[in-house]
Every structure is written in C-alpha cells, then in structure tokens.
UniProtKB/TrEMBL annotation:
Region of interest: Disordered: 1-20
InterPro entries: Arc_rbn_hlx_hlx, DNA_partition_ParG, Ribbon_hlx_hlx
Name the record gives this protein: Plasmid segregation centromere-binding protein ParG
Parts forming coiled coils: none
Domain of life: Bacteria
Composition-biased stretches (Low complexity): 11-20
SUPFAM superfamilies, alphabetized: Ribbon-helix-helix
Origin species: Sphingomonas hankookensis
C-alpha cells in the first residue's frame, strides 16, 4: 500500500506581478546613487578603538540614522583631503 501525495501549483504561479514589486526594485536605485563613484578604487581600513568609544559612536549614528563607516569616512575626508 503506497500513499501518493500530490503537490499543487505554486500560489504565485500565474498570479499577476505585485504592484509593489516595481516600487521595491526602484527603491534600490536610490541606494546606488549614494555609493561612491565606480571609478574611485576603495581600500578597507581596520582600526582598533576602545569599546566605550565604539558604543558611543554606534548610538549616535543610530540616533541620526547614519552608518558608522559613512561618518568615519566623512571625518577622514575633512582631515586629510586637500582642497
């Protein structure tokens, strides 16, 4: 005695694409505009900082809605970029 289980069609098969899908895909274009230019070669910088300083920076960035890397990058540009 063998039990056969049939699996129906996927729920999304044949369904029209969601209207929100285009908006979701378009939202990615905004993030691409924020990234540095493609012709600028980036290098990774690793530093050791005290845990308390990291905690302070992280909480301040969270309150502002920014990323730590972006804030540190801005500080380095202010300090070392020539006019």
């Amino acid at each position: 005695m063998t039990k056969k289980v049939t699996i129906g069609r996927r729920p999304t098969a044949g369904a029209p694409p969601a209207a929100g899908a285009d908006a979701w895909v378009g939202a990615g274009a905004e993030k691409l505009a924020e990234t540095p230019a493609a012709d600028v070669k980036m290098k990774r910088l690793t530093i050791d900082i005290p845990e308390s300083l990291h905690r302070t920076i992280k909480s301040q960035c969270a309150m502002r809605g920014t990323k730590i890397a972006d804030e540190v990058r801005d500080l380095l540009v202010q300090k070392y970029e020539t006019p």
